[in-house]
Amino acid sequence: MRELEVAQRAVRAGGEVVARYYREGVTFRSNEQSYNLVSDADVESEAVIAQLIRQAFPDHAVLGEETHRGDPNAPHLWIVDPLDGTSNFAHRLPQFAVSLAYYERGQAVCGVVFNPILGDWFVATRGQGAYFNGQAVRVALHRQLSEALLSVGFSYRRGAVAAATVHAIGDLLGRQIHGVRRFGSAALEMCYVGAGMLSGYFEYELSPWDFAAARLFVEEAGGRVTTCDGAPLPLAKSSLLATNGYLHESLLEVLRTHSPSS
Fold first, then answer.
1. What is the pLDDT of residue 41?
2. pLDDT of residue 46
């Protein structure tokens, strides 16, 4: 599949940019808030990825976190997060990724998530399964919250959203789950759900580049992805719940209770 080949090549090139900055150092700039960081690594990685896409598919749209604002409703759309986990990157925690997905008429066709420091590849193609470092993977079989290890993300928009997240975590811990983890990269955490390492992941506010590729990975691994209210996930800023499927309704019950929009 040509789109997948281009996606993997582009993600590798973006990963090489990010890895170089990780080794050599980088200066960060604040975005809207002092804790929402952006670096030259983000911008350069996205530029390299977009260039390779446009060389292969000049009529396709590119929607990226940093500078590319392609139409989300375009019939052929590439969605890129050039550095998911920028705060980890800033603090030299090797827990970040380059993420790229190709959508055709609103449906995910293929997605690639790559950690360039650990060398981990998560690749999914619609109807052909999910692969972690070349090996087919499936979601965990946990059917009870008491069996679950979960992960959570915190929006850069704090206040009510952060408070809702903390309250939901407290509720879940009270239900005797195995624990809650926070890795700092939505794309990787969702892929960990697909690979069976986690039973679920949620965040009350994410952008499409955060989840576009990993969403397909979870679904192709047998999992389920919706908003935290249980609605179909839009290609827009949204809440998100990704699970192994078996625990989805139980987790929705908790997340709806604490939703900042309720």
1. 87
2. 95
State the span(s) of the chain assigned CATH 3.40.190.80.
145-258
CATH class, domain 2-136, is alpha beta
Phi, psi of 52 (to 5 degrees): -65, -40
The rounded distance, in Å, linking the Cα atoms of 253 and 72 is: 30
Grouping H, G, I as helix, E, B as strand and the rest as coil, residue 134 is coil
Q: Per-residue confidence at 39, pLDDT binned at 50, 70, 90?
A: confident
Closest CA to 243 of 221, 261, 258: 221
The predicted model gives 140-154 an average pLDDT of: 96
Mean pLDDT of 145-164: 89
Alpha-carbon distance 163 to 150, whole Å? 18
C-alpha–C-alpha distance, residues 171 and 250, integer Å: 12
Of 133, 131, 128, the closest CA to residue 115 belongs to 133
Q: Which residues contact 107 (CB under 8 A, 6 or more apart)?
A: 126
Q: Which two tokens stand for residue 87?
A: 């705060």
Whole-angstrom CA distances from 158 to 33, 115, 204 are 10, 27, 11
Give dist(CA 189, CA 155) in Å, integer.
14
> For residue 223, which amino acid is it?
G
Q: What whole-number distance in Å separates Cα of residue 246 and Cα of residue 63?
A: 32
Does domain 145-258 sit in CATH 3.40.50.2300?
Answer: no
pLDDT tens readout for residues 69-91: 778 889 999 999 999 998 899 88
* pLDDT digit string, tens, across residues 203-233: 999 999 999 999 999 999 999 999 999 999 9
Question: Where does CATH 3.30.540.10 sit in the chain?
Answer: 2-136
Mean pLDDT confidence for 166-190? 95
